[in-house]
Design the sequence.
């Protein structure tokens, strides 16, 4: 029996990983000696915001496959829930 994490968990973990990588790169650039004169003493808030802005399009492009897998998984769950709801409603009608 093998453990396969859900598509939602994998997508979220990969998205957080891309953000963490972007944050480390932006933080390194903001505090590097070469760019310190251009950026000044960057506030951590601005570094986080820049990392969010950079990681969003990267995630959109790089995680397309995982996002589609997650959409299929969510659609299957919704279909099963609709089937259960219809079965419950039909049982109530019979009684």
Sequence:
């Amino acid at each position: 029996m093998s453990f396969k994490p859900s598509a939602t968990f994998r997508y979220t973990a990969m998205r957080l990983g891309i953000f963490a990588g972007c944050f480390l790169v932006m933080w390194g650039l903001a505090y590097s000696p070469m760019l310190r004169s251009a950026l000044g003493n960057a506030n951590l808030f601005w570094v986080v915001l820049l990392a969010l802005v950079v990681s969003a399009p990267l995630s959109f492009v790089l995680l397309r496959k995982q996002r589609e897998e997650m959409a299929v998984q969510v659609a299957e769950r919704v279909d099963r829930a609709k089937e259960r709801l219809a079965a419950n409603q039909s049982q109530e009608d019979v009684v």
Remarks:
- The CA atoms of residues 9 and 77 lie 15 Å apart.
